[in-house]
Design goal:
This protein has three domains: 126 residues, 2-Layer Sandwich (Gyrase A, domain 2); 127 residues, tRNA modification GTPase MnmE domain 2 (Four Helix Bundle (Hemerythrin (Met), subunit A)); 155 residues, Rossmann fold (3-Layer(aba) Sandwich). The mean pLDDT is 90. It has 454 residues and is of the alpha/beta class. Helix 8 packs antiparallel against helix 15. A seven-stranded mixed beta sheet has the order 3-4-5-6-2-1-7. Helix content is 48%, strand content 17%. The chain has 17 helices and 13 strands. Bound molecules: guanosine-5'-triphosphate (GTP) and magnesium ion.
Length: 454
């Protein structure tokens, strides 16, 4: 309903946008809307007639002057990304030629698209459901192969299929219960229970299972964050550089070098690991350093894993113990500077902290593999399964489960009207994932996060 209203509002204009980041050899400009082919014809003179999905060579002209030599293609509605008439121009990526092409298009009756407007139109025209549309951005932003695979799964409609299967169970349960409401005199209550409850139970199980994949999904897409903490000068930044494989953070012999958190990623076994270097923690710090220490603390709280760095050549100090206690969570203790004479050892550290310990040297690279292997990566499900990757979807699944549980409770009070209200509520919540029941506000908020030209 909402979808149709939104579509009616936007069908009448034709939009355009560059679809590629600036600075490349080739830039792709997209045009979509009822006049897309017309707009292209006004600016393009090709060697042959434009035809659905056939690439043509030609020039783009602005006020009679050629601004670029390009390839162009048109797509007939509904056989296009957006479901509307579309055109794409593959022009040179130089700033001057590209802006000439864009100006020519703008002068021919198209308006610059808003971020995400192409995909929004694809959604409104029924080319993809809302979960697939959201996955487009996740795919573009994915930083690991596994994350990209998870997004691609959703793009192909994997999540929609599961949601629709759950909604079907609820529809069947509703039909049974509503029949009972219509014929109250027949005293069908026992039958209704027998037939409807298993459907609700199955739906709850299915939805909870989906919600349970969020831990994996979050990991696949956003990776595992690993905060590196410890007192000043123990070699946190050196270790950080050693782990990410480049000189990213500043290292000096002066305690208090790192003042703000710095992060960088690597991909290991298909999973993204995001390391966060932090300011050394100490009590007598100046104003700036204090802020840095506060950030270090919150990074350590929020991270999926913590590396607590101790200078093996200095031994375990009171300050190390205090920092560890303040962490209040498990960490992998790294005894750094293993290339220097030792003042402590792994056994002693294990006893002092009660944690897993690795001896390493940021200077020689010793211990890198061991650290990476011991970072606890929570069990990641098979990336080829459908996994929930979005916080919003996770919250919706939780809310739907709650509604269904309360519908089961309402059964006990034998108030069938209440039961159906809760089931309908759950059905609607699920529909917010695929978009059938999403409000205009929800739809807009999703596309607002998109990049231009997508
Ligand atoms: N020999 C040796 N020196 C190291 C090693 N790791 C770091 N260092 C030295 O220790 C000093 C401090 O290193 P940083 O990496 O800046 O230490 P940090 O923990 O980040 O220090 P802050 O940012 O001040 O908290 C530098 O002089 C490094 O060269 C190591 O494994 N072996
Ligand atoms: Mg540092």
């Amino acid at each position: 309903m909402i979808k149709r209203e939104m579509r009616d509002m936007m069908v009448n204009d034709t939009i355009y946008a560059p679809a590629t980041p600036s600075g490349g050899a080739i830039a792709v400009v997209r045009i979509s809307g009822p006049d897309a082919h017309e707009v292209l014809r006004r600016v393009f003179r090709g060697t042959a007639e434009l035809k659905h999905a056939v690439m043509r060579h030609g020039g783009i002209y602005r006020s009679g002057v050629q601004v670029d030599d390009v390839m162009a293609v048109v797509f007939d509605e509904p056989r296009s990304y957006t479901g509307e008439n579309m055109a794409e121009i593959y022009c040179h990526g130089g700033a001057v030629s590209l802006s000439g092409v864009l100006a020519a298009i703008a002068e021919s009756g198209a308006r610059l698209a808003e971020p995400g407007e192409f995909t929004k139109r694809a959604f409104l025209n029924g080319k993809m459901d809302l979960s697939a549309a959201g996955a487009v951005m996740e795919l573009i932003g994915a930083q690991s192969a596994a994350g990209a695979r998870a997004a691609l799964r959703q793009l192909k409609g994997g999540l929609r299929e599961k949601i629709e299967a759950m909604q079907q169970l609820l529809t069947r349960a509703l039909a049974i219960i509503e029949a009972g409401i219509e014929y109250p005199e027949e005293d069908l209550e026992a039958d209704i229970r027998r037939d409807a409850l298993p459907l609700l139970e199955e739906a709850i199980r299915g939805i909870e299972e989906m919600a349970g994949t969020f831990a994996s999904g979050r990991l696949l897409l956003h990776g595992v964050s690993v905060a590196i903490v410890g007192r000043p000068n123990v070699g946190k930044s050196s270790l950080f550089n050693m782990l990410v494989g480049r000189e990213r953070a500043i290292v000096t012999a002066i305690p208090g070098t790192t003042r703000d958190t710095v992060d960088d990623c690597i991909v290991r076994d298909g999973v993204l690991l995001r390391f966060i270097d932090t300011a050394g923690m100490r009590s007598e710090a100046d104003e700036v350093e204090k802020i840095g220490i506060e950030r270090a603390r919150s990074a350590a709280q929020d991270a999926d894993a913590v590396l607590m760095v101790v200078d093996r050549s200095a031994g375990i100090t009171e300050e190390d113990r205090r920092i560890f206690e303040a962490l209040g969570r498990e960490a992998l203790v790294v005894l750094n500077k293993a290339d220097l004479p030792a003042k402590t050892n792994a056994e002693e550290a294990r006893q002092a902290f009660g944690c897993d310990v690795v001896e390493a040297s940021a200077k020689t690279g010793q211990g890198r593999e061991e650290i990476l292997a011991r970072i606890h990566v929570p069990e990641v499900g098979d990336a080829d399964d459908v996994v929930v990757t979005s916080e919003r979807h996770h919250a919706i699944l939780k809310a739907a489960t709650d509604s269904l549980k309360s519908s089961m409770d309402a059964f006990d009070t034998a108030d069938l009207d209440c039961v159906t209200i809760d089931i309908k509520e759950a059905w609607d919540r699920l529909g917010e994932i695929t978009g059938v029941t999403a409000t205009e506000e929800i739809i807009n908020s999703i596309f607002d996060t998109f990049c231009l030209g997508k």
